[in-house]
């Protein structure tokens, strides 16, 4: 896991800097054209305004792709980051067996990604040497059992999707809440700054010595999780007034556990960055299931945490960020509970946090 964490952090350390922020500005301008100002007045916006959600999406998916596949996948498909973002936005259509004639939004990016991944698994051995050890082991196993090319690409896509499906949404919500609570933001900055030594980020120190960031992260997992578990009823069972018949499937939404007042108290609907700090046992409570449970307990939960922490630490270290002053102000983005979710959900489409961002001294 340490190797994967370092492989993820390195592209962030290389690319998450002032010279690569233009795209965030461009995304913001497209959004502003539609929501805030007539097109001919866009130039009046300060050059240091940017889209927080776009920054989280781009840099985290970019870093994940390079940590798994080196530069090979980017060489094969230069638009891979955008394709994966489009795929992840609509992947619920595949999981929930959405009728194919309605599933165009996910079919197009999936087809292009599959083409790229087929080329990747067929690349010469010397080119595949830049893949991370986990992906190399998967490709080696596929060679041994000689599975068909479609299945190989599908397994690669599943691994890639699992690695990016939650991290950028979790990072966005952590930063959104920090930006709306300056006192917490300043304390988290102090925690994360202590993990920097001569411009080198110590991930182990960061993971073990940022209690308020950790509490904020856990609270995001509590309130922004739309995932659930699917279980097959093995024998007729009665729960309350419901008769569950053997052979049927049951969908168990974890979110209902996360809003139980008997566990979380009367202010269960409020976001509290200190909740898991004040009562650390809550992170181990049976009613806290952000990563599933049993056989479906997410094996990458610790890696995901380190990735979010690393991204937040780099962003706060290299930039001065605050809420941008926008025409009409900025309301806190609404959680997307309208689209079926498989994990941490993002904001409603079209909602964002526009930030004022400057290079740190």
Automatic annotation (TrEMBL):
Q: Which Gene3D superfamilies match?
A: Cytochrome P450
Tell me which family the UniProt entry assigns to this protein: Belongs to the cytochrome P450 family.
State a single Gene Ontology molecular function. Answer: oxidoreductase activity, acting on paired donors, with incorporation or reduction of molecular oxygen
- Pfam families registered for this protein in UniProt: p450
Supply the alphabetized keyword list.
Answer: Heme, Iron, Metal-binding, Monooxygenase, Oxidoreductase
Coiled-coil positions are none
Specify which residues bind heme according to the UniProt entry for this protein: 298
In terms of superkingdom, the source organism counts as Eukaryota
The protein, known as: Putative cytochrome p450 protein
Keyword Heme tagged = yes
Q: Which organism encodes this protein?
A: Rosellinia necatrix (White root-rot fungus)
């Amino acid at each position: 896991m340490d190797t994967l964490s370092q492989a993820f952090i390195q592209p962030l350390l290389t690319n998450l800097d002032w010279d690569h922020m233009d795209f965030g500005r461009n995304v913001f301008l497209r959004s502003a054209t539609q929501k805030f100002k007539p097109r001919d007045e866009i130039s009046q916006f300060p050059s240091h305004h940017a889209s927080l959600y776009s920054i989280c999406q781009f840099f985290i998916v970019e870093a994940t792709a390079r940590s798994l596949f080196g530069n090979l996948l980017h060489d094969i498909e230069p638009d891979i980051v955008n394709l994966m973002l489009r795929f992840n936005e609509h992947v619920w259509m595949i999981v929930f067996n959405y009728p194919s004639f309605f599933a165009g939004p996910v079919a197009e990016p999936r087809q292009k990604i599959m083409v790229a991944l087929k080329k990747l698994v067929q690349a010469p051995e010397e080119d595949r040497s830049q893949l991370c050890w986990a992906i190399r082991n998967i490709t080696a196993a596929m060679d041994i059992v000689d599975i068909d090319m479609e299945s190989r690409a599908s397994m690669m896509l599943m691994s890639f999707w699992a690695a990016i499906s939650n991290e950028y949404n979790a990072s966005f919500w952590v930063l959104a809440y920090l930006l709306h609570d300056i006192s917490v933001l300043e304390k988290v900055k102090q925690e994360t700054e202590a993990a920097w030594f001569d411009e080198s980020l110590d991930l182990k120190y960061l993971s073990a010595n940022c209690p308020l960031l950790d509490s904020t992260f856990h609270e995001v997992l509590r309130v922004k999780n739309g995932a659930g578990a699917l279980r097959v009823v093995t024998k007729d069972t009665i729960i309350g007034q419901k008769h569950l018949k053997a052979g049927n499937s049951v969908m168990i939404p974890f979110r209902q556990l996360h809003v139980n007042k008997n566990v979380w108290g009367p202010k269960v609907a409020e976001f509290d960055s200190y909740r898991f700090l004040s009562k650390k046992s809550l992170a181990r409570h049976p009613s806290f299931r952000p990563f599933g449970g049993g056989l479906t307990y997410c094996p990458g939960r610790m890696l995901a945490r380190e990735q979010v922490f690393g991204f937040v630490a780099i962003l706060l270290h290299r930039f001065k960020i605050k809420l941008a002053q926008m025409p009409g102000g900025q309301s806190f983005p609404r959680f997307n509970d309208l689209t079926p979710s498989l994990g941490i959900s993002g904001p409603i489409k079209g909602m964002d946090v526009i930030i004022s961002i400057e290079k740190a001294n």
